[in-house]
Amino acid sequence: MKIAILGSGGREHAITYAISKSKKIEKIFCLPGNAGTDIIAENIIIDINNFEQVYDFLKKEKINFVVVGPEQPLVDGIVDYLQKFNIKVFGPNKMSSQLEGSKIFTKNLCKKYNIPTADFGTFKTKEDTIKFLKKANHPIVIKADNLASGKGVYICKNLDDSTNAVEEIFGGKFGYAEDILVEEFLEGEEMSYFIISDGKNFRSFGTAQDHKRVGEGDTGKNTGGMGAYSPSRLINNELNQKILDKIIKPTLKGLSDLGTDYKGFLYAGLMVKNNEPYLIEYNVRMGDPECQTLLPILNTDFLDLLVACVEQNLKNIKIEWANKKSLCVVLCSKGYPDKYEKRIKIKNLNALKLDNNNHLFHAGTVREDNEILAVGGRVLNFISLSENLLNARENIHNNLNKLNWAEGFYRKDIAFKVIGK
Ligand code: AMP
Ligand code: GLY
User: Fold this and answer.
1) Which domain holds residue 256?
2) Is 265 part of a structural domain of the chain?
3) What is the C-alpha to C-alpha distance for residues 38 and 211, in angstroms, rounded to an integer?
4) CA of 225 to the centre of ligand 1 (A)
5) What is the CA radius of gyration of the chain?
6) pTM (2 decimals)?
7) What is the pLDDT of residues 219-264, one digit of tens each?
8) Do 272 and 365 fall into the same domain?
């Protein structure tokens, strides 16, 4: 088979790696990929948000199967677009992708199907929102409705914070804002929960805890994710069943009642308190860096699984995992998530100890004249698999010391709630 993988992050390198292990592969293209994917696939520089360009390339190369990594093209309807040309695509359609594309869509679905989530209200004007906030208890959470790469969320301690959030969102910081979402602040611990669905059947696809904050001890600004470990320390059979019964199944039923179905990965961002799950948000794709921790422990042929999903044949596939824990540390450019320098050389990659249990997935890197340059905020993902997380983290730190990249930084405390700092 000839495959195209859309995206350029650590998640997409992990997807490319997992697919490349399949015996059915003739060729893999990554659009546009990074300096890691170009070792196992061919990178093609294309703007994946320009669907016509993507289609022209797929047609020219006679690609049989497409995997979409990031949310933006999904929310914009790339699956519907390519299906019109009879191209097989793994990922949800435009209607289902509203689960990530519109927080208000998801909140309304939660309300209708009694899915546990934070109480919420939506407002159309600055004045109405502030009038409400003056009477509301703080802390309170304020969100822009549209896709904002995780940045359109404000946790507000007091009225000053919340007024500022309303000004920024209605001021257009995240694009034109028709509505604003005000939410009850949920206490508890977060967990990422994944399923894979073929539109008729679905399977759980692992759990992880993502460390989203930039600083040690989960402090400082939100980022795309500084590291993760899997499985989450919170998961147990009872909680798993509650997540399926109270959150996942009613969501899939809700989509079905709207006349559509869900195909692809669905990522539920949950808050767990006293073994009870609450939905914070949905993402219509794998998590990044959670994907990088999960795919290396998958024993099932990943391509078979994705194809079965698109062909609505998931019920015939057994999903098997290695009996190991997995940990990922993200190496970032100094300054991230704010300003950082680009085009900084990374040397010493050959010094790393990599094997079946120790992986390196690139994120914001490019290769130029056989040199690797950092061009993004999140640059490299170090993954280690082991019977215990402490051992995995030590393996990663050894590799990070070997790399010794002075222009980067990383969190040394990933999984600290399980194994300390
Ligand atoms: P989101 O983009 O909706 O996932 O929000 C980003 C982060 O903000 C989440 O990962 C949580 O840490 C936090 N967050 C969002 N909504 C709430 C809420 N209602 N209560 C507490 N924390 C929240
Ligand atoms: N790990 C957070 C995300 O992928 O959105």
Assistant:
1) 189-316
2) yes
3) 28
4) 13
5) 21
6) 0.96
7) 998 899 999 999 999 999 999 999 999 999 999 999 999 999 999 9
8) no
